[in-house]
Each structure stands twice: as structure tokens, then as C-alpha cells.
Specification:
2 domains; binds zinc ion; alpha+beta
Length: about 290
């Protein structure tokens, strides 16, 4: 049986501005921890954000470089959630009115990994974008043996989120997408896109389904990857893992499949003390 892989990427890109997204604290990698902060990026009561014009310009420039539609009107929203590295307990982001929509990233032959350049399945492919929006980065946690330290220097750094359509079909195409995008961002001088410094980070959504099935398989998200070859390796692992589970599932009788759960939910047996196949992530597993 052949399987189809569907991948969508969310790429976070730190912009190369001198100051943060909503305050005048400097953006500088490697500075002494917690020295580039102020009441705004620490979320102290009464502090009010003032937008960084240069970050707005760079995001629009990125949108133009990638052929996006630029919104005549956009807004920012508060995304409320608690996380130790986010001092305000909300992130200022864009929800329903992003700065840029649509657009494409062309996958050039030389952007593919060297060992895959002679075997490109879809030459001259273009990956379409859903949107590019502007938000602020969170602080950075450092985990020590018995404690965790938080450096708020990064909190409030301007961050673009670039979201693709789910139309990448292999780990090699994901590699080529990120290599092409990185080059465009560097040439456009909107980001240094240095993945070792966390200036470009990637979340991957991947699902695998049998070729005969039209409905997408269950989506698995791999978050916060910080190297292009790491993205390729993680996706290749997930393709193998999901394909294997589909193959294993074929050995079980279809009548034993009693339910579907969403990926993040816990498995549960529908009937206790009976051998039952429960589907999770739409892939049946054996449950005793
Ligand atoms: Zn600040």
C-alpha cells in the first residue's frame, strides 16, 4: 500500500529590529540575562504598548517579497494563556485580521537537500501561504539541574508567524521550503534567520494516509524545531512511524474498531475487561 504525506508548517521568524515590538528595550542576542527589559515587556501594571513601526514595515516587505495580499486594515489581539516564560500571561498577536494573506514560496532545485536534488518529485513547486502575522516573542527558559531560570531579554522581540497551506508532501520538500524562505528573509534584510540563535523556529503538522483514502489522516504537531535538517529528520521519523501504524492496523479486523478520539486526548476502552481495538489519532491500537 502507498501512503500520502501531508505537511503544513508554521514558521516563527524574529525580525531584525533594534528595539522590541511594543517598547524601546533593545533586541540583542547574548546580552547579560534580564538586562534588556522595561515595565512594558515585563507586563507591569499600567504599562501600555506602543507599536514598532519598523517591525510593521518589515512584515509588509516580507509579504511583498512572497507575493502576499497586504491588508488595508489590520488589528492586534490578546492571546491569553499562562506560561512561565510569558510575564504578562497574554501575548499580543493577530487573530482574525493578519497583515498578510496568501502568497507563495517557490522551491528551487538547489534548496533541496543535496542527496535529494537528483530525485525531485515535483520540480518548480510553489508552496502557498495562508497568512503572515506579527506578534511578540516570549522569554527564554534555561533548565538547570534542580531549577529553571528565565531570561526576559527575548520577551517582546518582534516575531512574524508564516503559515503554509498543508501542501508539502515530503520531508525533503519541507527542507526546500525552509531553505528557500530563509534565503529570501536574509536577502530582504528582515531577519538574520539564524536558527542556532532561535531567530527562525518551525512547528510542523504532519499526517499520513493511505493513497486510497481521501480524508486526511490524524494530524500530529512537532513543535519548536530549530534546524532545517532537524525538521527533515523529525518528519522522516514521523512518516515512518505513521505509515507503520497504518500497516499494523491492517492486520486487525475492521469490526473491532469502536471509536475515534482526537490526538491530544487520552485513550480509553469502550468496554472494560474485553479485548478491544480503540482508534486514537484515527489509527487503531490494541487495548486490553
Ligand atoms: Zn521593554
Amino acid at each position: 500500500m502507498n501512503y500520502v504525506t501531508t505537511i503544513g508548517l508554521e514558521v516563527h521568524v524574529q525580525l531584525k529590529t533594534r528595539s522590541k515590538m511594543f517598547c524601546s528595550s533593545p533586541v540583542e542576542f547574548g546580552a547579560e540575562p534580564n538586562t534588556h527589559t522595561c515595565p512594558v515587556c515585563l507586563g507591569l501594571p499600567g504599562a501600555l504598548p506602543v507599536m514598532n513601526h519598523e517591525a510593521l514595515r518589515m512584515t509588509v516587505l516580507t509579504g511583498l517579497m512572497l507575493g502576499c495580499d497586504i491588508a488595508p486594515l489590520c488589528k492586534f489581539d490578546r492571546k491569553n494563556y499562562f506560561y512561565p516564560d510569558m510575564p504578562k500571561n497574554y501575548q499580543i498577536s493577530q487573530y482574525d485580521m493578519p497583515l498578510c494573506t496568501n502568497g507563495v514560496v517557490p522551491l528551487h532545485d538547489l534548496a533541496y537537500p543535496k542527496d535529494a536534488q537528483k530525485n525531485i518529485v515535483t520540480p518548480d513547486k510553489e508552496v502557498h501561504l495562508v497568512r503572515i502575522h506579527l506578534e511578540e516573542d516570549v522569554a527564554k527558559s534555561f533548565h538547570f539541574e534542580n531549577s529553571t531560570g528565565i531570561d526576559f531579554n527575548r520577551a517582546g522581540t518582534p516575531l512574524m508567524e508564516i503559515v503554509t497551506q498543508p501542501e508539502i508532501n515530503s520531508p525533503e520538500e519541507a527542507f526546500a521550503f525552509l531553505a528557500s524562505l530563509k534565503q529570501i528573509l536574509i536577502y530582504g534584510a528582515v531577519s538574520d534567520a539564524d536558527m542556532e540563535k532561535g531567530q527562525l523556529r518551525c512547528d510542523c503538522n504532519i499526517s499520513v494516509r493511505p493513497e486510497s483514502q481521501t480524508e486526511l489522516g490524524a494530524k500530529i504537531e512537532i513543535k519548536n524545531l530549530n534546524s532545517i535538517s532537524g525538521v527533515r529528520r523529525a518528519l522522516a521519523y514521523e512518516v515512518r512511524r505513521q505509515s507503520l501504524r497504518w500497516r499494523m492496523a491492517k492486520h486487525f479486523s475492521k469490526r473491532h474498531v469502536v471509536g475515534m478520539t482526537q490526538p491530544a486526548k487520552r485513550f480509553s476502552c469502550a468496554q472494560k475487561n474485553s479485548r478491544m481495538i480503540i482508534a486514537t489519532s484515527r489509527i487503531p491500537i490494541l487495548c486490553r
